[in-house]
Every structure is written in C-alpha cells, then in structure tokens.
Predict the 3D structure of the following.
Amino acid sequence: QEFHDFVANEIPLGLSEVVVNKNHVVPTLSHLHRNVTGEGSHRHLHSSITFDLKPKLKPELDARSCEVIVVEKLPSGVFADPFELDHLVQRGVFSDAGVFGDTNLELPSFRSNRSVVEIHMSIASNVLSINKDYLEVNLVVPLHARYPPLGHEFSRVEFGQPDIFMCCNLEGDVHKRRCVSMPDNNILDREASPVMWEIPCGIKKHAEFVSAVTFGFAVLASSIIVLTSIFYSDSQGSDKLKRS
C-alpha cells in the first residue's frame, strides 16, 4: 500500500493535470507487447505500444507537441541505473527519464524496495505524417538484476503492466499540459502471461566454500605481509649496525 501511495503522490510526470479518457478525443491503446531480452544480470525490457488513430487526430497531435509517458513499476529484484537513463536522454533516445524510489544500486533484493521508472518519448512529426491509421511506439529500458537470496535455483521476477499516458500542450500555452491516462480495455492480449525474468541464485554450500577459501587466502596474505615487514625491519637494523 505504501508503494502505491508513493506512485500516486510522488511521481511528478511533468504535467499539470491528469484526466480520465471520457470526453476527450484521444488515440486508443490497441496493442501492448512486452518481453525481456539479453543474458546474465543485464537485460532489456522491450515494450511495443500501438495506438489507433483517427485521421483528424494527426494534425492535432502534431500541433500540440504530444508525447507518450510510460511509468514502469519495477519489482524489488531489478533496478534501472539513473546514470544510464540520463545517457539515453542525452543521446536523444528518450526526451526525458527518471527513477524514483529505491535508487541504491548496491543493495541485494531482500534489502531493497521497489522503484519506478518514468520514460518520456516525443511523438515525432515525421511519424504522424505517414499515411497510417495507427501510431507505434517502441521502448527499450535497460535493467539490472539485484543479488537474490541464496538457497534457490532461480528467483522469478514478474513485470506488471505499465501505466501509459498521452500528454499534450494546452492550446495557447506551451508551459501547461494535459495528460490522459490510456486504459488497456481494448488490448486483445491483455490477459496474456506476464513477462518473467528468472535470475539464477547462488548455492548456499558453494557460498560457504568460497567464503572459507577467501578467508584462508586473506589470512595467508596478511601473514606474508607481516613476515615481510618484520624481515625488512631486521635487515634495515643490521645494515645500520654494520655501518656504525
């Protein structure tokens, strides 16, 4: 409940007003396909979002400098690197991006809290000029796995559906915007299986063995350093006596 309150009150969205899609003529969210790609502890969450457009909507969306905002509520087992997202913004991949919540990248999964990633993507004029009755937005978010607890073969991380908004400047004022929440009622496969990421866990017996070996080498290295220091001090003292 605390996490949902945080999402409702703390996520800024960069907008002045959020309205429900009732009396506003807006695109319809018709398709949402998601999957996780990559190997190891560094993966990418792909989202392909399709909106159905009416012909009269295209010039209006273009004139109002609209953008799509996607809010990903990440589970506690993964995180997004804020610096990596900033780099993507600088490259022009996203128009804006931010991470809210737990941004401590070093915490293991059992000590971390959930976080939220907010992505802004502008709707380019050249995309709207194409003679199609739909708008497709492709989003790729780099993610990293946190260290899972020991004792299990895999830790399964499940991604829920993102919150999607269409935001446009209000007529006559570029500093104020109106955002419309895009419901997923019209998505054909919205009841499909959720996106999963299976993160390998360490084996407890192996961890104990590695800890013992590491401790042994640490003791050996410390002993060598101490003996070397003693030998060096004795040799320095002998040289001084010979010179005197």
Notes: Residues 14-23 have pLDDT under 50 and may be disordered. The radius of gyration is 27 Å. Residues 99 and 117 are 5 Å apart (CA to CA).
